[in-house]
Each structure stands twice: as structure tokens, then as C-alpha cells.
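Lab notebook page, bench 4
Experiment: in silico fold of construct C2
Operator: M.H.
Input chain length: 118 residues
Purpose: comparison with the prior construct
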Amino acid sequence: MKLLVGWLLNALALLGVAYLVPDIHVSSLMIALLAAVVIGLANILIKPILLILTLPVTIFTLGLFVLVINGVLFWVVGHFLPGFAVKTITAGIIGALAYSVVSWVLSAIVIDDKKIKN
């Protein structure tokens, strides 16, 4: 149950980011649900590989390069998924940061670990 609620909240966060950032477009709630899954899979499967490959740059920038990695993944998902568009890498970086913040806020408001059981 908690996983489904989190998935829906991430999709709603993605719709909110599309409203906040002008260069990001999500055509429908179904596309937002699909994009939330694809972004999650990219973060699970591709991001660790990119973090290892860019470790020297990440260390040199004191971890700020992770924001670029998140933005690039967000941008790439926008190019491969029809109905979800991210026009520039800068919009991807801003969108990924906003997506993280909005998703975190929604999860903090809605999901109460004491009430929802796995």
C-alpha cells in the first residue's frame, strides 16, 4: 500500500514540476505515472553506474555533480518517453531538484509511517 501511495505522490509531484518549470511538459496523469516509474528505474539501475564513473568529478565538486547526474537522467527520460518532454539539460537539473523537493514534501505530508503498514 505504501509503495502505491508513494508512486501516486511521485506522479503528482511530476505534474507539479511540469506546472512550475516552463520547459517541462507532462501530457496526462497516465504519462506522469509511467514517467515516475521510468525515473525511478533510471535512478535504481543507471544512477549508481554514473556515480561510480564520475566519482573523481563528484569528489572535486564536493558532491554537487550529483545534481547534474540527476538532471541528465531526468532529461534523458524526457527524450525517450512520449508525452513527457524536458527541453534542455538545465530544465532537467531544475526539474530533478524540484521533483525531489516536491516529492519529499508530499510524502512527508501524506505518508505517516505509524499509520500505513507495509
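Observations: The first strand starts at residue 24 and ends at 26. The chain has one domain: 2-110.
Next step: discuss at group meeting.
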